[in-house]
Amino acid sequence: MRRTLVFLFWFYSLTVCGLSTGPWIVPKLTHDKQNESLSKGSSVTFTCAIGDPSPEWQFLWYRVVPFRDDLPADSHWSGRSTYSLELLSDSSRGAGGSYSLNLTGPEQRGVYVCRAKKEEPVYYTGYSNPLILWFSDPDSTGHLSVNPNRSALFMSESLSLSCAGNGTDWTLRRITDYMEISQCPFTRGASSWENGTCHIKAVSHYDGGIYWCQSESGELSKGHYIEVHHHDAKAYVIFVTDTRPTIYDNRFQFEKGDSVNLRCVVDSYLVGWRFLLYRVVPFRDGLPEAPHRSGAARQSLELLPGSSTHAEGTLTLNPAAPEHSGLYVCRAERGEPAYYTYSSPMLIWIKDSSPQAFLSIQPSRTHYFENEPVSFCYNGDYWCQSESGELSNIVSIRVEKKPLAYLYGPPEGWLTAGDSVSLHCSLGQYTSTSDPRWRILWYKIVLYREELPTFTDKESSSKYSLELLPDSSEDGGSYTLNSVGPEHSGVYVCRGEREQPVDHTEYSTPKLLWVIDPSPKAALTINSNRTQYFQSESLSLSCVVQDNASGWSLRRFTFYYPSSLSGCPFNNTVTRDQSTCNISSLDVADSGVYWCQSESGQYSNAVKISVNHNPSPTLDVSPTWPAKGDTVILKCDASGSSSGWRVHFYRVIVPIEEVLPSEDTNFYSHELKLSENSTELLSDSNREAGGSYTLSTVGPEHTGFYVCRAQRPNSFSYTPYSNLRHLWVKDPSPPASLSIYPRTSPFFEEFESVSLTCEVKGNSSGWTLRRFTNHNKASHCAFKHEAVTWDERPCNLMLTFVDSGLYWCQSESGEYSNAVNISVHGQPTSRLQVTPNNWGTEGSSLTLTCEVRGSTTGWSFLWYKVVSPKKGFPVEFDSVTRFFYSLELVADTSMGAGGSYPLTPASHEHSGVYVCRGQRGDPAYYSQYSPHQLVWVTGPSPSSWLSVSPNRTDFLQSQSLSLSCKGLGNLAEWTVRRYTSGELSDCPFNSRSGNWAESTCNISSLDTYDSGVYWCQSTSGELSNAVNITVHEKEDFKSRLEVSPNHWVTEGSVVTLSCSVGAPFPGVRFHWYKAVPVSEGLPLVSNRGRFREAKYSVELLSDSSRGAGGSYTLSSSAPEHSGLYVCRAEIEELAAYAEYSHPGLLTVTGPSPSVWLDVIPSRSQHFVSEPLTLACKAQDAATVWSVRRFTLSKELSDCPFDKKSQMLDPSTCNISSLTLSASGVYWCQSESGKRSNAVNITVHSGNVILESPVHPLKEGEKLTLRCLGRKKCQIKPQCHIL
């Protein structure tokens, strides 16, 4: 009799959320059989703990089930499934906090969760951590073999899958991660099916998913999951050498005689890579061609001597010589047939003092701008090379875009005489300070003169001249006018110019500068005497000149980008009549500054004109469906219009399809083609802007469509018409009635058929069916619509989204029927789910459930199984995978008509892919087919076991792990499989898993994502026990030292040193050390500062063991206890030591030592940027002392500390400019470890510090405290303490 092995393990990848929960209380779910293998008939007891023993708590127990709308739900991380939480039917027996489960069958497999509840008021905790109950899969009937035998592949790798089993006619099938069903050969990509084997030439991310073999009779093999990584592996050439090359962009330059080691590496965690190293040479037949971009010269790859697929991809150039210079490429390959990837070329250059040829460049420089007349146009390295491989010198060329000049700085408003103004010109990164070869030139635009440089306005094409400003290049990127006058008014530009080599930028965009003239020679007048206008208005501007002088003209500077300078007439809407300029129809682009200007350069006053967009009225009708006799209000909102505008309301008096865009225009256009002839002005409709129009007692005669528009004051100019709105008065006895078949509801699904009929009362004629869609589209029946027919009575449509809108019947005389607002929704989607999950066991109960838009109401359901294309069945086509298949209606599909189809008892024949859909109505209307769902039915498995070495379940990052399959059967047919973070994979799992040999999987360097459940599985599907492996982050295993009560105490104080790690690891013990000068035989520790490392040795304290628990106490501290302490954590069970902690400083003050630290200036607080001198003064002049410090950021270092410090003599340290990071404790220390007193130095960035003594005072000494300010601050208060 075969036993089913069952066990429990933590499952961290599942997250659950609930309603009305307390986020600060999260229960902990545990069990009494942790890591034990359980068999059928055993019992397990769950415990739900919240840390509160109050008897008011009641505990609730849940099981994770496929998604149901009536249950709390969340989405699984992988995105391939959803789940809900179902309250256990006997949850109440666990209300006290414990729930026992007798293992009676594999159907109890699943994920369990608990939470707690209180009454009055009702309060729920959050959900606990989930706990999963695991059991093995059964034997399979067929056999699927995979080559290469792994689950993880890169894109473009080849893959072969072979099917074998009893009988013939086996096919390979798959369901991908995109839930797509297909059969080999797969039409996406290059695949073939030959003699029971499917060959995929180059896998893509569409190929990831579950694969299985299936016979014509329905027999199924085991499933195999393939994971395809969405990017190719990338090879690189790297240096493995102590020689530091000089790096020029992508070139690595070495000295002749250096030793250069190159290695080929690949950014892949997969193993089994083989490497080849090549040198790029001129193209030669018989050699592999080097990868190159389109249009580039062809080159070849020459295999380097000693490079082979058996090598590690390493090449040594020793000694490096000029003939080694060139491009190197590596190739990484794996598998048979080989998947390979080439690295990008790496240029290695060995300097040659006397090359065989010399590369010269004209003009002789290495920096060029685009479009210069040179023979190259790309950044890069250039050299000469002979056919025999000899090389010249190498030159790096840099080609960049020419800089653009940008002028900014003139104020937006007017200046008055005497003001000072600065103009600024920028060339981006090229300024007169960063590149002295560039200078800025400043110009004023003046009327055209032949002797001056020409400037053509790009926007208006007007031609002007440029007048160079005096001293324009003296101030770099700025030009200052210290006391401006009216003569400075005008338009300015700048540009950059370079002498070596000669070059210049384009002129900048012009900028206007205007200075108010209190007595201008001319005046600019405007006919309407205002400066704010709307589009299409007219404007006249006149130049009134004193003494009737001639030679004056109107000019303007517009603001719209790009800024433009032009003279009247500005464009074809402008006419000129002597001194008057007439603009017949203003546009927004006419906004700008206008003035009059004489030929001699004199100016009138300037006027700033602003032209705004016309307001766009919006019409609102309320209510739109009134009853006869109701009051209706029409409101027109013309926001943006100025005071005095009038609003008019209109009724459309012609069929609306004649005033809306035709079929040849944009379907979604909202512009109305209305005119005076198609609208009727409502009586007394003239209203103030924003006003409303009231229809006091509406009747059927008011039914129709309405618009509004606004009129400018004292003008015949109008805004465009507003949006079109309908008003439909409900008529209890309309002359015609619009009826809908097959049902009266106005709500339809896409592709449903509907018939609309105009039923006319009496003998009136000329009725047609009309509509106005939600996309502002008007038409009548059969109006250029292929799906519509019209035979004077019914109008038949196959509805789509664009058919949503208002439908009615209308006579030639303008009578209306009732109106119907039809709403069309998309064809409803179906969703298929499998409960309790997709993977069942022989004899268990599985249920397929189908819903349409989350409901089963009003629908009956049909169930299908995906089969090969079959005669007599509709053939479906998957456009993504280009896979043809048939949907075979399940024989007893009526069993699931209500939305649930049971597979009871489940058997292996039920395995396969299913879909469902809903139907309703007569004729039948169908929902969409549901996405595919895979059902897999499994059974019991034989016994074997997984052996773990070292024999534990907790590991640290980078540690190694071996997993071996032991037990019955042919061990060569077994592999180690795992489930980690929702992913299933076989050994080798990644690049650290080493070799898979003799049923053992070695993971040489664990990482946190290796945490998960591991088991052995045979090719026939047998399963071993499972082991839950947890890998902890190294960051959590760092030693952290704290000193309390603080690091500065007096002699005799009690000091406690505490050491901890980031996570509660089991069996942690701590070791205690004191930092001493570097000593042979003691561990060496380095502590990196900002600019250098401080190295010191650590000496184990003789009584370190008394602090093994994490706390080391000095009950009576003395000066000799002063120093730096370090701790280190050890987990004996994991055979692992944490890194040494950062040092913790302890300073114990006592009697005056034999050496002391002198501080100049003698105070404990200092300003940023101040100098500081520290000198060691000792009674014993023969001892060499160094100045050491320990900063607030826990950096330990000796002087010199950084670039701003130096040793003036062996015992004196000078810091030229203090920074905030210099705050810390300073002392003198000898090579033997003797110490001086310690001094606390604090650096401040403010303006005031407290001047206080740097050394402790004796009792009775005088103390003076003073507030010290920076040199600019006059602060003199002081305090004397006697």
TrEMBL record:
One of its GO terms (cellular component) is external side of plasma membrane. Residues 1-20 form the signal peptide. The keyword Transmembrane does not apply. The keyword Signal applies. SUPFAM superfamilies: Immunoglobulin (SSF48726). One of its GO terms (biological process) is cell surface receptor signaling pathway. GO terms for molecular function: transmembrane signaling receptor activity. Keywords: Disulfide bond, Signal. Gene3D superfamilies: Immunoglobulins. Pfam families: Ig_3 (PF13927). InterPro entries: Ig-like_dom, Ig-like_dom_sf, Ig-like_fold, Ig_Fc_receptor, Ig_sub, Ig_sub2. Residues 27-125, 245-343, 403-508, 520-612, 615-719, 734-823, 828-917, 942-1030, 1049-1141 form the Ig-like domain. This is Ig-like domain-containing protein.
